[in-house]
Amino acid sequence: MRELSTGPGRVLVAVYAVFAVAATGRSLVQLGTDAGRAPLAYSLSLLAAVLYLVATTCLLRGGEVARRVALVTVLVEATGVLVVGTLSYLVGDWFPDKTVWSHYGQGYGFLPLVLPFLGLWWLLHPGARAARSAGDEQTSCPPPGT
Amino acid sequence: MTGWLVVTVLLLTAVAAAWTVVMIVRDESPPSDRFFVVLGVLLLVLVVQLVAGLVALATTDRDVDGVTFVAYLLTVVLAPPFGAALALVERSRWGTASLLVALATVAAMEVRLDALWAAAGA
């Protein structure tokens, strides 16, 4: 019986959880101490933080609804890192301070760039689809044991 | 912040990470008790670092970014138990790989802690 957060999903949950904590911490510190310095960059940090939190939660919850929400989240995330990454190279003035997404996540070993695509792969993976039906079964009729 | 703490943490993390890779390759799960001893020592050193870091921050003249520094000191302690929990819940290669994620996080945070401290230096 496979769930969204089992197998390879477990690694994804680990990485997403780390980024959720990192992005949340960073955005709160930035907004709390010096919000006026780079409002756009800091707001994007917060958006990234929320997306990572939602993705982590969805992966942990499992089931079809969570899988769909996670898909949307991961797509927004991919768009975010590509747009912000490109803009930070083209119009550096908009980003006086670094965010999780600027320069395609350079400060985080480019993982923010790779992560959404890993997420996409896993969410569309047959293993995760099996989790979909497994998750649905569990809501209507819990299987005996695992 | 003393250099030997950073070196100790990074060395222990490297040993644990190498061991984890061996376990992933050999498909050993869950990790052995002896591995958890190493992870426990790492955790202990991180707790020592938390105390030492707070004391150092309180007594230093350097202009360290206090909020971020303390946040890193605290959060890095959480990483090994988090990885251990995932490795024990998911008894497969993937669980052990999650442990590797946690160890990489410790290494990255340790380097950042050192950088935060060094950046504030004269």
Q: What is the H-and-E element order of chain A?
A: HHHHH
Number of strands of chain B: 0
Order of helices and strands of chain B: HHHH
Helical residues, percent of chain B: over 70%
Describe the global form of chain B. elongated
The number of strands of chain A is 0
Count every helix of chain A, treating DSSP H or I runs of 4 or more residues as helices.
5
So how many helices of chain B? 4
Mean model confidence by pLDDT of chain A: 84
Low-confidence stretches of chain B: none
Count of discrete structural domains of chain B: 1
Poorly predicted residue ranges of chain A: 137-142
Biggest beta sheet attributes of chain A: none
Distance between the termini of chain A: 6 Å
Rounded to the nearest angstrom, the radius of gyration of chain B is: 15 Å
The structure class of chain A reads mainly alpha
Derived from helix and strand composition plus strand pairing, the structural class of chain B reads mainly alpha
Mean pLDDT of chain B: 93
Beta-strand fraction estimate of chain A? under 5%
Shape summary of chain A? elongated
